[in-house]
Amino acid sequence: MDFTNIRLDKHNEEPLYRQLAAQLKNAIITGTLRDGERLPPIRAWKDTLGVSSVTATQAYEVLAQAGFTSGQVGRGTFVKRVVDTPGLAVGELSLPYVFRQTATTGEANLSGHLKSNRAALVQRYLQNALAYYQANPDRPTDMINMTSGSPAPELFELRRWKSAMMRAGESFEQESLAEAGRNSQFQYGSALGDNQTREWLADYLARFGFQPQLSEVMLTSGSQQSLDLLARVFMAPGETLLVESPTYFSALEIFESQGVNWLPVSLDREGMRLDEVERLAERHHPRLLYIVPTSQSPTGAVQPVENRARLLELARRYNFFIIEDDTCNELYFQEESLPALKHFDTDGRVIYLKSFSKLIFPAVRLGAIVAAEPVLEKLSYAKGVFDRYTSLPTARSVLKFCTQPAFERELNQARHLYRTRRDAMLAALERELAGSGCRWTRCEGGFSLLLTLPRPVRAEEFHRAAAERGLAVLPGAVFYPVISEAPDDTLRISFGDNPAELLNEAARRLSLALTACRSPRPAQVAGPQFVTSV
User: What number of helices (H) and strands (E) belong to the chain?
Assistant: First the structure.
């Protein structure tokens, strides 16, 4: 192949490395680049196309992650042709993809499954924070952790959970007696999950403005399994996906495992910008959009009701499906829950996700996917392959827990607690950082917000200064679809599992860290090394 024929448009909104990767991928798919053919060395692209080694490296990383190339130390990068089995037709809906099997080498499968860059990056930040803290001889006596994104442990109703498990066991005994001890409910069941729990959940979801049929509800082992199933079934290398920027980093990591191409959509005070959705959809014709419309992570933003209806109009006009991650609608700070996007869905375009990990406690691994029957049929097939069946004892215990009147009182208590802590966090930030040039999102639900630092302070520099003063914060780059293009001045601040007095002290330490970043810093021995790109 004559690589000088590749054309890159520097005025195009798509990054140069993605343009390069897309054209190389097309050459591989069409056979212009043959299996086993060696690609040019990284440095050669500067002479060929006038692009930097960073651009070429990123393009090769995209191809490798999608399974189109393999690298051999000391030899270079080589083409590895990917062959897909054709998709199946699913009902009357034009679905993006169905469950696929990809002919790849065992080595490629291992590298794809073991790659976990965002989680590794978060772990490295936490390890670095502890190392910086311990290396400071003048450190405070405690380290305040604002990185977790976890619910408040004092809300965990363990006695009620114990009672719910006992009542679940009693219901199993009664069912066993009714069928003369055959215990068929404890055999392998439908991948859709326990019927009683699904029936209750279908009624429960009416509070969000829709009530699905039993055949449209499938139980899962939490939201991450739901996302993983969707990625396996509906995404393939090269699939374009509209996504909030920033957004839930575990979703990004799961989708990246399938080699998707991002179409990032920025956020404003009202959540995902619909003007950008329309512009990108018209130009790129994506088939999927991922959104957390209520209690968005990491900003806490909430999509207004009128924008939700408008987003469904765009989905119908440009023919894309919506993955609605509605994990924390119950933690919206106003008294009444907002209608889900699914409420406005008239033709089965919204695939709705629910989880109970933040409503009961994270160790309860139960979630659900609600979708049109043709969609759920393929998802249940994939779940049967990978997981067979969501735990019956867990599902029935959740049913017994959530059908008690105490559950509604506990949801109200959780909303009140997180709203109180949000108010305390905002007041403390205003008191300590007013006039500093910092900006932060207000957070209308959930328990995190996004803080933007003043220039020229960088998030990683601030991360270290804060850790040395006993405060662990998480740089915001991991929440952006393309980490290498993420702003370097944002932090996620999680306040849900910290009482008000600690939030006041945390804000004070934020101010101290900012002052330190703006002061000349003496030369120091290099500390732990950050992972800055993936």
Answer: 16, 18
C-alpha span between 532 and 121 (Å, rounded): 8
Q: Which residues contact 149 (CB under 8 A, 6 or more apart)?
A: 297, 298, 447, 448, 492, 494, 496
User: For residue 89, what pLDDT band results from cuts at 50, 70 and 90?
Assistant: very low
Report the phi/psi class of residue 36: left, alpha or beta, with left for phi > 0 and alpha for psi in -120 to 50: left
pLDDT digits (tens, 9 = 90+) for 292-327: 999 999 999 999 999 999 999 999 999 999 999 999
DSSP code string of 76-92: EEEE---EEPPPPPBTT
Task: Report the candidate in 142, 129, 105, 353 with the shortest Cα–Cα distance to residue 230.
Answer: 353
User: Shortest CA distance to 171 belongs to which of 200, 148, 149?
Assistant: 200
> Do the bridges between strand 350-355 and strand 321-325 make them parallel or antiparallel, or are there none, so unpaired?
parallel
181-199 pLDDT, tens per residue?
A: 677 777 777 889 999 999 9
Q: Could you read off the pLDDT of 233-254 as tens digits, one per residue?
A: 998 888 899 999 999 999 999 9
Give dist(CA 12, CA 24) in Å, integer. Answer: 17
Q: Rounded distance, CA 317 to CA 314, Å?
A: 5
Instruction: Select from 182, 198, 172 the least CA-distant residue to 380.
Output: 198
Q: CA 486 to CA 50: how far, in whole Å?
A: 24
pTM comes to 0.77
Residue 346 corresponds to which tokens in the numbers above?
């008239």
Sign of the Cα torsion 41, 43, 49, 55 reads positive
| Rounded-to-10 torsion of CA 119, 107, 60, 81 | -130
Q: Alpha-carbon distance 325 to 296, whole Å? A: 9
Q: What is the pLDDT of residue 116?
A: 47
115 confidence band (pLDDT: 50, 70, 90) = very low
DSSP assignment of 355-411, as one string? E-TTTT-TT---EEEE--HHHHHHHHHHHHHHTS---HHHHHHHHHHHTSHHHHHHH
- Residue linked to tokens 């679905």: 95
Classify each residue of 474-486 as buried b or exposed e, where b means 16 or more C-beta atoms within 10 Å of its C-beta.
Answer: bbbbbbbbbbebb
- Among the listed residues 100, 49, 431, 80, the one whose alpha carbon sits nearest the alpha carbon of residue 234: 100
HSE (side-chain half, CA atoms, 13 Å) at 450: 25
CB atoms within 10 A of CB 521: 11
> Which among 411, 401, 373, 376 is positioned nearest to 158, based on CA atoms?
401
